[in-house]
Amino acid sequence: MGFLNKVMLLGNVTRNPEVRFIPGRDLPVAKFGLAVTRKTKDREETCFIDIVTFGKTAEMCGEYVTKGMPLLIEGRLNYSTWEADGQKRSKHEVVAENIQFVSRRDKSEYSGSSAFDEPASGSMDEDDIPF
User: Fold this and answer.
1) Cα separations (Å) of 32 from 5, 42, 71, 102, 126?
2) Closest CA to 94 of 73, 76, 80
3) How far apart are CA 61 and CA 5, in angstroms?
4) pLDDT tens for residues 7-36?
5) What are phi and psi of 28, to 5 degrees?
6) 32, 61 Cβ separation under 8 angstroms
7) CA-CA distance, 105 to 93, in Å (whole number)?
8) What is the pLDDT of residues 93-111, one digit of tens each?
9) What single string gives the DSSP state of each residue in 92-106?
10) For residue 112, pLDDT beyond 50
């Protein structure tokens, strides 16, 4: 039997990425939070998830990702354990392997500029569709 560890999340960044370098390896590591909201008829629940990424993706996050920005993240779930002050600690986090910037439907929701502009409604006609 095979194993699968795949996570896909679409949410908003809760804090600006903190980029550090692993000593001796000069490998960038970026850490930030993501809020993913699930809405039902009766209620809304938000899950806050710690995200970590390495290498070029970490550098890109440090340069372009800001609090409030919507992102689509693809990665894997990681479980970390350590000891601090004689107490055993643990947490789950998502190791992001692919991050995509997402534009919002309502541009007033996000004050930053977006590299992706949605086409104006009615600006596309049937001849533009390739299938």
Assistant:
1) 21, 30, 12, 17, 42
2) 76
3) 23
4) 999 999 999 999 999 988 889 999 999 999
5) -70, 140
6) yes
7) 28
8) 999 999 999 987 665 544 4
9) EEEEEEEEEE---SS
10) no
Which residue has 């990425």 as its token pair? 17
Cα separation of 111 and 100, whole Å? 18
Selection from 97, 93, 68 nearest residue 82 by Cα: 93
- Report residue 106 as tokens: 């309502």
Measured in residues, the chain has a length of 131
**Of residues 58 and 117, which shows the higher confidence score?**
58
What is the Cα–Cα distance from 72 to 34, expressed in whole angstroms? 10
Alpha-carbon distance values, 62 to 3, 8, 67, 124 (Å) = 32, 21, 11, 36
Q: Quick one: DSSP state of residue 64? A: H
Chain mean pLDDT for the chain: 85
**Residue 19 CA, distance from chain mean position:** 15
- pLDDT exceeds cutoff 60 at 92: yes
Instruction: Indicate left, alpha or beta for 31 from its phi (over 0: left) and psi (-120 to 50: alpha).
Output: beta
